Amino acid sequence: MNISESFELGGGETVTFVGAGGKTSTMFRLASEFSFFGLSIVTTTTKIFEWEGKKADFLLISEDIEDLENLISALSEGKIVTIASGKSKDEKLIGVEPEFADEINAQISPDILVIEGDGASKKSFKAPADYEPVIPASSDLIVPIVGIDVVGETLNSENVHRPKKVCEISHFEIGDTVTPEMIGQVVGHEKGGRKNVPSDASLIPLLNKVDDESKEIAEEVAKKILSYTRQIDKVALGCIIRENPIIKIIER
Fold it and tell me: How many CA within 13 A on the CB side of residue 154?
């Protein structure tokens, strides 16, 4: 299955990705699914590397809605546009304010608006800092991502982004082994995967990097997540680099 079918996206939605373990790749994969027939806009409320932003057909550095309107009017259908507010000295694109993302949603109405809502320093698992995630109010779907390859690793800064925050919202300590139970507690927690989710938005976690060997573990993680909150009704298992990226949906 592709992402849009699995998440029942019909077009016109705003999807915000949070967490760790393949957010940027998943964003552009989803954007590409809609770009076959329409306009996909990709942005971030944090920072992404400039080379990542250039995966799109066009990169616009502006927070002026008229600049975006002018660019889109000159485009043919079937394009992906990345939009950022500026560039930093470390070759990263600076994200837009969440209110600007809401403005894009209201005035441009792209076929899909895809947003990265936090950073993860290329790790596969994280818990959010006090100031994140930054999720636009107009988001229809929030997708917390975890890379299943983190299971069995040690809970420390080498393997996990903000491991101390993981400890704060779970029953685990630095140095413990990352388990399905740990991931379930963090993703299902109101200060973890459910943090800052708009009240009317859907919430579907994605367990990424799943293969034949890790599928059973991923299913266990999914069931743990579902056991910790009634706010989540299903969890997707997938591997974004595959031709059909979503392998299975685990439902309550």
Answer: 5
Counting as low any pLDDT under 70, the low residues of the chain are: 76
Residues whose CB is less than 8 angstroms from the CB of residue 225 and which lie 6 or more positions away in sequence, other chains included: 183, 184, 187, 188, 193, 205, 232, 235
pTM of the model as a whole: 0.95
- Cβ neighbours of residue 15 under 8 Å, at least 6 residues apart? 7, 9, 30, 112, 113, 114, 115, 139, 140, 141, 142, 143
Neighbouring C-alpha atoms within 13 Å toward the C-beta of 238: 28
Return the domain boundaries, the chain: 3-38+113-251
Q: What is the C-alpha to C-alpha distance for residues 22 and 66, in angstroms, rounded to an integer?
A: 32
Sign for the CA dihedral angle at 74, 80, 86, 87 comes to negative
- DSSP string for residues in 2-22: -HHHHTT--SSEEEEEEESSS
Domain 3-38+113-251 has CATH 3.40.50: yes
Q: pLDDT tens-digit profile of 177-216? A: 999 999 999 999 999 999 999 999 999 999 999 999 999 9
CA 232 to chain centroid, in Å, comes to: 16
Q: Specify the pLDDT at position 238.
A: 98
